[in-house]
Amino acid sequence: MTKLLSDSAYLLESLPEIWFGLVVVSLGVYLLLDGFDFGLGILYAEADEAERQTMLAAFGPVWKANEVWLVLFGTVLFAGFPVVYANLLSRHYLLVFAILFALSLRGLGSKLREERDDEPWVRFWDACFVVGSATSPFLLGVFVASWVLGTPSALAAGPFVIGVTVVALTIVLGAAFLGVKTDGELRARVGRRGQLATAVYVGLFVLTAIVLYGRYPGLQSVLLSGSTVAVVAATVAFAVGNVVAIAHDRFRIALVSAAGIAGAFVVFVATLLYPQVDPAAGLTIADAVVSPLPLNMTTLVAAIFLPIIVGYFVFLYSLFSGPARPEESYS
Amino acid sequence: MTDPTLTTALFEVGPWLSFLSPELASRAQFGWAITIHIVFAALSVGLAPFLVYFTVQEVRTEKERYARLRKFWTKLFAIGFVMGTVTGIPMGFMFGTNFAAFSETAGELIGGPLSFEAKMAFMLEAVFLGVLLFGRERVSEWFYALSSVMVALGAWLSAFWILVVNSWMQTPRGHEVVMEGGVPIAQLVDPVAAFFNPRFPWMYVHMQNAAIISVTLLIAGVAAYFVWKNRDSEVWNTALRVAVVVLLITSMFQAIHGDLYAGHVEETQPQKFAAMEAHYETGSADLHIVAIPTELESFTDPRADNLYTISIPYLASFLASHGDPSYEITGLNDFEYENPPVAWVFWSFRIMVGLGFWFIALGAWGTYRLWRGGLADDERLLKALMISAPLGFVALITGWYVTEIGRQPWIIQDVLTTAEGVSPPLTSTEATLTLIAFVIGYILLFGVFLYVFKRLVDEEAERHEVGIEEDDRPDAPGVTADD
């Protein structure tokens, strides 16, 4: 207890590393959960009106809660590494606002399309929903890549290819999620899209590794290390699992394997970064972490509330489990 | 310093977009964003207790009228929550994008509370709002009512942590400033002193009550509209009765509390207090109840001595010092640092206080009518309530201007100036570009919100005309979830 309120020692010696892990995990959970939503929003483009109702019913109860993980990621980074938060966001000024704009289009589109019935209105907000759902993961991928690689430009090869890879990943996730939430024709089609997206994702992932190897000599040793090999092996294994599970109409297993693919991606990103937290500014975890008292305090709060948050999500997803009911909209 | 390709492209239009300094553009952007965001934040905070009341009454009494009120206001709450999220998330990120130096200095103090908000409040609200909006048929009646309590708790906790951060910036405590690599860092040494700093309780009570007043006026205005259209509407007469009583109580409380709050501001931020009264010469001060400018210049540069005022001599001194009429109030001429924009602070303060008295009058008028009978028949009262529906938010925004503009030039009082807190790499062009985008984007957003709100009201009005209004069917087969 005295250590908890200590202003000279971290609760655990490795607390800064643990907090780095927490940053990565909250980013990963965000990628996973909002990944469903982005993928759903992209697959929405080719759905007919009845299917769209079903998709919105699957999306409606959960997306707000999913999106909170982005805020959680931001504030966890801010609380643990305020210098990184400040540097990273001010360095990617226009990109950050572009991401926020894309996310707003997605959120408003899905909500506002329900407010009126006439064609032009519904079409307009549907388009916003689709465009927002496709551009958000791309820009988020670009942002994460520019962070990890220390390259600020969206048009540099590394960030661009990672952005596209993240888009493919969200389609993998969205298809698996929709497969669980729907049935019949729609499920068959999103299944096929999911399989295709998985194949494309694996290809893009390999392309990413090649581009990084060629363009970022500093990363060559990491890319050849055991951890990268493990990540690639895991990605391939989960991808095969995903495709096979969809072929057998086992979408719960597909969802788990899709989550595995996303998890492998996040681990990959974390290995590229560690032990740095802001390569462009040359900051390591030890340089950038806050002093012991605030970190001990926020750790205590996180230790209490993260399990509660996990509880909320288990509750929310089980309450709205099973096929989405299109007739079930705002009561 | 950001994206070189984009920056090159912007270079062409750069000169056209760089008429504001990064500091001014960032301040304008943050100020504009919060002007819009605070409306939705207050809508959440203020509407939440009403939703709890309607939902609990619905479950307890099974009366259709509460179900109707719950449905109507939950829809508005849901739209407000989406808008609040859409406008709120950028604000958190603006700490990093626009005020990176401030984030670096204050990170230890404000990073924690912001993460607490996300973990404790935002999650709770988002998850249970999902239940409230979509889960009517999936959970039991009482669990449904409990969800409304959880949403309310989330909204209030959210405001709690945000105001912890804000009040610390007004009366910073519990930290020590050390220099690290030429950058001042406020290190946290006493979290209790920092979080429960002197300003916090004042600000929290005043703000939460202001949110309730704003929403009460909105409910009263909407209810008055429907009652005006259909005097016998049981649903909206119920809402009207509740609203006028709540308005009277909360607005009277706000006046008393606000007066004491001003005394606290005088003690802790005397420069802001002087700006609120446009008090330039040090000495005892009168209280100006009404101030009318006699020339155009007084709008942009108000000086209490030059205005036509109705004043009570020495009362400002008397109130600020809790009883000493000759108490000396430092004038704006005698502070070491530059003054905040006095006109904004002075006029905002007058608008807020003036509206506050109007709300008390409205609450008293309505409650009197309720007591003596004829609440639904008093056309003049109904019209006054309709016109006043948005005014609570006006008072709230102007009150926020007093707080936030009044503390300039400080971003953290006596620790860091706003100019020092701006992101070093930020260019005028970037900041001006996003400012313009925010101005246009939020005007459109707010327009959409008003449009959706109007449609909700129209739908409800249609229901009146076709006569599906009649309610209170105790033997109705439960309360249906769908409209």
TrEMBL record, chain A:
GO biological process assignments: aerobic electron transport chain
Membrane protein topology class: Multi-pass membrane protein
InterPro entries in the cross-refs: Cyt-d_oxidase_su2
Main localization category: membrane
Membrane spanning residue stretches: 20-47, 68-86, 92-109, 121-149, 155-178, 199-216, 222-246, 253-277, 297-320
Protein's UniProt keywords contain Nucleotide-binding: no
GO terms, molecular function: electron transfer activity; oxidoreductase activity, acting on diphenols and related substances as donors, oxygen as acceptor
GO CC term, one of those recorded: cytochrome complex
Pfam families documented for this protein: Cyt_bd_oxida_II
Keywords, sorted A to Z: Cell membrane, Membrane, Transmembrane, Transmembrane helix
Superkingdom, natural source: Archaea
Compartment annotation: Cell membrane
Protein name (record): Cytochrome bd-type quinol oxidase, subunit 2
Organism: Natrarchaeobaculum sulfurireducens
